[in-house]
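User: Okay, second chain of the day. Same drill as before: sequence in, structure tokens out.
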Amino acid sequence: MPGLDGYEVTQLIRDPSSTIQDHSVPIIALTADAFPETRQRALAAGMDDFITKPLEQDALFQAICRNLKTTFTEPDLFLDNAPPELLQVASHQLFQIDYLASTVENNQALLIQLLSMFLTTTPIEFDKLRQAAKESDLVSITAISHKFKGTFGILGMQSIANDLAELQKLANVSCKELEIEALVMLVCTKYEKAKTEVSKELIRLQS
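Assistant: Same drill. Structure tokens below.
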């Protein structure tokens, strides 16, 4: 808004005497200033969250999920109803076939075997992860994240591997339930997209 900085705009929105219709609308600070004092000032002004530049899509996704207080259901249902900002996060390529091909020295038979195993074994485990998230079962979330972070890294899905590593760390801090729920949603959304990409590559290799 002309003549007002982000802090002043936030205070205006939060002021119950102002003409703003929704005083509780979520506000996320985005700044290149990562100092703790800046974060404290933003939160004191009434902002709900704080992320820093350079902007990472995953960080934005998680912040939006936290502040929308989205309840995780199923990835397909989530994708059908997600705001455009969240869908954009999952729009980039997740599975890098060239990375895996170089790892196995372009052995096509082995590639087909690995991708087939991925498609047959991971759905069951991710169903367990979804259920664990619904039940706030941190032990199971930790175990599944630990089990599969290496697998996704080997297969060339480093973004998901990194998220699983972060999820494993968060699950050890029980007070961060909203962050865990948001990250499980992100991981499962990415997983569904990666599974589709793997299926397409497998069909191509088998043709």
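The longest strand covers residues 28-31.

User: Thanks, on to the next one.
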